[in-house]
Amino acid sequence: MRLAVVPGDGIGPEVVAEGLKVLGAVAPDIESTFYDLGAARWHRSGELLPDSVLEELRQHDAILLGAVGDPGVPSGILERGLLLKLRFELDHHVNLRPARLFDGVRSPLAEPGEIDMLCVREGTEGPYVGNGGVLRRDTPHEVATEVSLNTAFGVERVVRYAFERAVARPRKHLTLIHKTNVLTHAGSLWSRTVEELSAEFPEVSVAYQHVDAAAMFFITDPGRYDVIVTDNLFGDIVTDVAAAVTGGIGLAASGNLDVSGTNPSMFEPVHGSAPDIAGQGIADPTATVLSVGLLLEHLGRPELAKKVNAAVSFDLSTRDPKATIRTTEVGDRLAALAG
Amino acid sequence: MRLAVVPGDGIGPEVVAEGLKVLGAVAPDIESTFYDLGAARWHRSGELLPDSVLEELRQHDAILLGAVGDPGVPSGILERGLLLKLRFELDHHVNLRPARLFDGVRSPLAEPGEIDMLCVREGTEGPYVGNGGVLRRDTPHEVATEVSLNTAFGVERVVRYAFERAVARPRKHLTLIHKTNVLTHAGSLWSRTVEELSAEFPEVSVAYQHVDAAAMFFITDPGRYDVIVTDNLFGDIVTDVAAAVTGGIGLAASGNLDVSGTNPSMFEPVHGSAPDIAGQGIADPTATVLSVGLLLEHLGRPELAKKVNAAVSFDLSTRDPKATIRTTEVGDRLAALAG
Ligand SMILES: CC(C)[C@H](C(=O)O)[C@@H](O)C(=O)O
Ligand SMILES: CC(C)[C@H](C(=O)O)[C@@H](O)C(=O)O
Question: Is A240 labeled as catalytic in the residue annotation?
């Protein structure tokens, strides 16, 4: 198994080190190669994702990414040139984001165990395609557009994946989140696709919610959700709401999957490079470790993924919520528990 | 003062009756004319918003709307044909949504007084314009698009309004919410507009947040916000998050404003027609009463608006949170307090 590792910037390298520590404890046969990408490289060389690096990344079984960015990089550069470029080039059409309230994590909104949702966010279409433009820039007649592109091909494969995940879970419930009452064209494609595929998965019960209502119910009644499927932009927003109600971004893991297996999938914590706390050794590596769990599951090692998740579960249930996190200590504990 | 009233469907007429009760108690000179629009009319006649009715509505100083819709109307019909049609035809470019945590309202996320934000949502542009389409429908090659249109004209006027509101508030703070790192074209127009106008409002401090981060901070740190300005779709989502953290949709008021005064502005509770509880007399009319407060403010009667808001404030601080709401009793109490 060959893993490409992109530690990135800020707390990225710190949390990745702990992720690899835990990975090494459960799967010592995985061989890691490090790639220097992110804000630091861009500052140094102006490079974002050289073609040669992309080609090398393709030769791996999976990618682990920490976080990229620093305040000196203008907004959009790393996102379009690196993060989204990877998702689009490697056809990461499923952006998988579990949100579970672990024992020991205090949420004002629910009891432990009450929240266990799996968000399946589309990753290669929608408003993220970069299709749009600016006309008459810097004049009073300026017009700026953004086009959301949705294809039957793209929607079908992510909805199918969501059904497959739903049917394998105890509750077998799938919620489509969209805004079909306003975005009627795209909404219709999404709704029809869910309806059509539901015939293939009769055991799965299906619900629909508008994104505004869903963002509210994630807060007032998060326990009602099981698997969720949604478009790229709605998924970006609601998964952060889901993270907020399940202990925060420090615990939110994600996988960017090419379900076909043609390209390596990429695993990363949802949080950013957090320059404000970088270098202090106080970043919580748990989201990265949970991302390693998703990686192991994806590589066909569910028993190892279970060990990692159980270690996190146990550790969270015994953590003193008031104590300062020490990045390496959390990693040491999780590696010892999982190994 | 001439008010057009659209009670609508479900709990709409129930809450509007209480809104008018309170309005009558503070401003007996306002003359109301009722218009029958919504699901019931559509079922009966297929009509949504006849041109003649639209012309009559234009002859009023303001519109009060309850809620429209019932489960028998396909999604999108009333939204596109009535609600959004009104916003677009009457150029309601400012969608004003205050979110305040009143004394006596229990929120797991903040203490009373800690949340007092004013969301200024754009109302006539963005992904709501209905620009898009479907190609090769019902084939494996289907493509569905949605185009977000943003103009300098449209963005400038709503951002200017937000600055004007911010400068008049104690904290004088304005947060732009967008997704400039991904929606770079529209994002650039919004960012540049805020930057340019901030030179005219040097007293206002300005912040920017991506919509995903904002949706999270609305939950984990709602007290940091003062005035917010955002696009039509982001505003739809984040104002529901704001409602969820300030006592729920039963308290969320809104105004759809044509700031130029050319067309009547429209005031409505954010909640829907709630067919599940319609006819039982248990809907909370508070959001409608607060919308009446916004209406009075807009009509240049801030002292009356203050009375209405103070009545709500007092009533909420003395309500038994476990007692069932009785719609007419709440209205009676609020009318007595405000009158
Ligand atoms: C950094 C940004 C491009 C990205 C996104 O919008 O998808 C991030 O918010 C995420 O959720 O992974
Ligand atoms: C009903 C719908 C068209 C509307 C919107 O999306 O604006 C509603 O959600 C709102 O927020 O007023």
Answer: yes
